[in-house]
Amino acid sequence: MLQRGHPASVSPPVKRRGRAPGCARARTFLPVAVEDLALARVAEHVVGLGDLLELLLSAGLLVLVRVVTQRLTAVGPLDLLVRRTAGQAQRLVEILDAKTREKLCFLDKVEPQATIAEIKNLFTKTHPQWYPARQSLRLDPKGKSLKDEDVLQKLPVGTTATLYFRDLGAQISWVTVFLTEYAGPLFIYLLFYFRVPFIYGHKYDFTSSRHTVVHLACICHSFHYIKRLLETLFVHRFSHGTMPLRNIFKNCTYYWGFAAWMAYYINHPLYTPPTYGAQQVKLALAIFVICQLGNFSIHMALRDLRPAGSKTRKIPYPTKNPFTWLFLLVSCPNYTYEVGSWIGFAIMTQCLPVALFSLVGFTQMTIWAKGKHRSYLKEFRDYPPLRMPIIPFLL
Ligand SMILES: NC(=O)c1ccc[n+]([C@@H]2O[C@H](COP(=O)([O-])OP(=O)(O)OC[C@H]3O[C@@H](n4cnc5c(N)ncnc54)[C@H](OP(=O)(O)O)[C@@H]3O)[C@@H](O)[C@H]2O)c1
């Protein structure tokens, strides 16, 4: 539209020639056009104003020129045009509270190409307490949050977009969350392993277990969490920068609590080794190691799907690494391997709290895997049909 408002002199000669009949039309219908024709038509005449004046002057119709000039000034089509085209180029955004429907903010002149992330930044200027990471903006008060990368002009909204705001609460970075969640179990387990005072009674302070499996279990547990910490720092490419602060309390209670409970029994002076002795431990260790390698391989494969700094999400496929072939059968093999590791650890230690931790972890990861599987099916039409969320052919 704006191009149509360019001065006629910059238009290519062919186009100018092409507008000549239009000028003739303008001479006949100009008064009508000013009053009745749609704004777009007026704009067309305005563009051809140079030609028109030439024509009118040459015809000696100075009176008519004055009338036309007066009309144009009175109606203000140029003004209107600019305003209208500006209206088409820029949007108005009102932000209402999703709970109370109270108007929180009105943003005018928002570029149609603006992303939700940019709108959040504008909103923060008027409400600094709600920094972008704690804002959820939706089209419907009870609907899903819009993504930061969603573009205003692609949303099903008119020139005035109404967005509903929800406060997600104080946020904390994912990396901090993971480091806190994973460093806790590592540290707590070691307190029990080294039998620091006030845990098992004075006479056991800083004593060591006589069972090999207890030492092996400590190595496996520590290895698992060190691996997770390193992966959080150097492997994962997260798409979300933050998560609600309150989640960290829930998550830490889960990880730290289970770590303490498991460690208490495994390192207890009265701990009894597994029923089938070394054979059971060896089998369990093999399961644990294979699953750790598998889990790491999947994390590397997921990392390779996403270029650094992007939020790209692709369908993961098996690579040359045989551990990734599980992608043929499940959507989240990293969870499958994670559960496998804990089953291995439970067999190795033959300890009830470990079995319970595996069960709770399995339940949680199944819920996430199902959600992720559903979103893969929704997002990718060509998603491999054979895959299940977490357990091949079953679940
Ligand atoms: N024991 C337990 O109770 C328990 C519970 C949960 C997790 N874990 C462990 O923690 C690990 C990480 O958990 P998670 O829930 O973050 O795993 P996840 O959802 O599979 O994500 C792992 C990483 O890969 C990225 N990613 C996932 N799918 C992708 C795709 N299609 N394209 C591009 N990137 C993709 C994720 O980015 P996004 O940020 O976009 O998701 C994230 O950075 C698990 O594999 C498991 O070993 C253990």
TrEMBL record:
It comes from the Eukaryota. This is Trans-2,3-enoyl-CoA reductase. It comes from Ovis aries.
